[in-house]
Structure formats: structure tokens, C-alpha cells
Amino acid sequence: MKRLLVVLLSLTFIFAVTGCTSSTNESADNTETKTQEVTTANTDDDEGNVNNKESTAENANAADYDFSSYEKDIRKITKKVNNAKTSSNSSENHKRFFTLKKQIDAVDDELDKLDDEFEYAYQMKEISFETYKARERAIEKLEDKLELAEDALENKYGIDD
């Protein structure tokens, strides 16, 4: 009985160690690729058919507020992130990372400010609750796209900021 227990524990240990070490590097590469694919899928910039239909529907639902400039900025940033190259020089990678990160943060700050303006307008009874919620949902969708770009950037450069 003790031999069986020792054999089972030994096999469990061997499988645990072998399973963890063989896929460590592949896992990091696969995560980066998957994140970039998701970001690319959400930002089809060439034809723009998918995004234009979505943005038209969002604008109609968001009480005719035009979010297209934010959508355009997010598409540009996402494209820059996807086209960004890493180098063997870590200081150059940090510089590239933080340049793109500042652009992402700037758009995120603009969206936060816009959300605050909509909330203030609702509190002052300038817009209805339905209009406020529709606009807030549209902003959340834009922030989600921006978050995907930020995740792809962090994965590409291996920096978790």
C-alpha cells in the first residue's frame, strides 16, 4: 500500500513538473497572438463595414451623439499597436510602449470626461435617463475596445502597467 502511494505521488510530481515546464514559453507567445487577433478582429480598418454598421447603430441608440471621432482614434491606436515592432533594446521597447500607452490613456481620459459630462447633463435634467444610459453604454463599448488595444500592447512588450 505504501509503495502504491509513493508511486502515485511520484507520478503526480513528474507530470506536474513536466507539464509546467514544457509549455511556459509557448503559452506567452500564444497569449500575445490571441490578444492581437482579437484586437485586429474588432478594428477592421480596410473596409470598415463591420465597425460602420455598429457605430451607426450605437449613434442611433445613443440619442444621436456622434462618437465617430473616438472610434476613429481607437482604430488608429489599435492599428499602431498591432504594427508596433519590438526590438532587442529594452530602453527602446519602453520608449515605444509608453508612447503608445500615453495615446491610449489620452483617449481613455477623454471618454471619462465625456461620461462625466453626460452624467452632469442627466443630473441637471438636460437629457433623459434613457439617453444617458444609451450614451454610457456606447462609451463602455469604446472603452472595451481601448482596453483590448492596451492588453495587446502590454502583451507585445511584456510590460504590465
TrEMBL record:
Regions annotated as coiled coil: 97-159
Assigned keywords, A-Z: Coiled coil, Signal
PROSITE patterns associated with the record: PROKAR_LIPOPROTEIN
Composition skew (Polar residues), residue ranges: 49-59
Signal sequence, renumbered to the chain: 1-19
Top-level taxon of the source organism: Bacteria
Region (Disordered): 23-64
Protein name: Entericidin EcnA/B family protein
